Amino acid sequence: MAKKLSDPKNTAEVIKKNEFAFKKKFGQNFLVDDRVLQRIVAGAGITKEDRVLEIGPGIGTLTQALCEAAGEVRAVEIDRDLIPILKETLSDYDNVEIINADVMDLELSSVFSGSFKVVANLPYYITTPIIMRLFESGADIESITVMVQKEVADRMQAAPGGKDYGALTLSVAYNAEAEIIANVPPNCFMPRPEVSSAVIRLKRHEKPPVAPKDPAYMFSVIRAAFSQRRKTLQNALSNDRSLGVTKDLISEALSELGLDQRIRGERLSLSQFSGLSDLLLEKRAG
Ligand code: SAM
Question: pLDDT per residue over 226-235, tens digit each?
C-alpha cells in the first residue's frame, strides 16, 4: 500500500529523497491535508463508474485518492522532473496513466472516449485560461472540481455590479452551476501559498440558461465590455472594431432593451448580454 502523501511527513520525505526543487513558475504548492483531499474527492462525487482527468498531479497526492475512488484516471503534468516520482508514488495503481504535457496543448476531447470529470488542484498562474479551455474544448466534461485562489472562486460566482463580476463570471454562468465546497487556508499546502484558496465545483449545464443566436459573438461583446470596464458600454463596444458596430447602433440597441445610455458592462446580466448581442447582430446586418 502506497504511503499517503497527504501526510506532510510523507510529502517531505518524497521531496527529500528525490532532491526535488519546487518550481514557482509552475505554481507548485502541494496539498498536505487529508481532510481537504477527501472533501475534493467527495465533492466531485467520484465513483468507480467515473473517468477522471487530473491537471497537475505534482507528486501524486490527489492522484492517489482519485485512483482509489475512480474507475480510470489520466493525469497530465507539465514538469518532466515529476514523472519518475509519479511512477513510483502511483506504482500500486493500474488504473492511472501519466501524461507528460502542458494541459494547454492537450487535445481534451481525445483524453477519454466518452464523458469524464475534471478534478485538480490547479496551478494558480494559469487558472482562468485552463477553465476557459475546458469549457471551450468541446470535450464531454460532466463537471470540473478544482482548487483555485479564493479570489478567483469569488469571481466565478459574483453578482452583477461588483468588482468581482466579469468575463469569467459570465463564462461560468453560461456553462455551469458553480458551488464553493471548501475554503482552504495556506497551511494546507507545501510550500504555503501567499493567498487563501477554495475548492469550487462547476457542474456543466445540460443546456445553457440563455440561447444567444451566436454564442461566440456574445462572448466577444462580453470580452470587449470588460476589457475597458471603467468605460461606458457604448464606448467600450464601439472601440472594439471586431464587433463591427457603431456608437449609434449600440445606442439604439440599449434604448430597445430599456437600458441607460451611460450604463457600464458590469451592470448587465448574462441574459441582458445575450439580448444585446442578438440585437447588435441584427442591426449590424442592416
Ligand atoms: N495535485 C498536486 C497536489 O494537489 O499536491 C499538485 C498541485 S500544484 C498546485 C499544480 C501542479 O500543476 C504542479 O505539479 C505543476 O507542475 C503542474 N502544472 C503547472 N502548469 C501546468 C500545465 N500547464 N499543464 C500541466 N500541469 C501543470
Answer: 998 889 999 9
What does the DSSP 8-state code read for residue 90?
A: T
Q: How far is the CA of 179 from the centre of ligand 1 (A)?
A: 22
pTM over 0.85: yes
Which of 20, 28, 86 should be mutated for ligand 1, with most atoms under 8 A from CB? Answer: 28
Give the whole-angstrom CA distance, residue 33 versus residue 124. Answer: 18
Alpha-helix residue ranges (DSSP H) falling in 111-212: 127-136, 150-156, 167-175
pLDDT at 1 over 90: no
Q: Which grid coordinates are listed for 128?
A: 482562468
User: End-to-end alpha-carbon separation of the chain, Å?
Assistant: 68
- Pure H helices in the chain: 8-17, 34-43, 61-69, 83-89, 127-136, 150-156, 167-175, 215-227, 233-239, 247-256, 270-285
- Phi/psi region, residue 58 (left: phi>0; alpha: psi -120 to 50; beta: rest), is left
| Calpha distance 42→271 (Å, rounded) | 33
Q: Is 76 in the pocket of ligand 1 (CB under 6 A)?
A: yes
> How many other CB atoms are there within 10 angstroms of residue 191's CB atom?
11
206-247 tens-digit pLDDT: 999 999 999 999 999 999 999 988 899 999 999 999 999 999
The answer to whether the CB of 50 falls within 8 A of the CB of 70 is yes
- Is there an atom of ligand 1 within 6 Å of 29 CB? yes
Decide: 130 in ligand 1 pocket, CB within 6 A.
no
Cα 216 to averaged position of ligand 1 atoms, centre (Å): 30
How far, in Å, from the CA of 9 to the mean position of ligand 1?
20
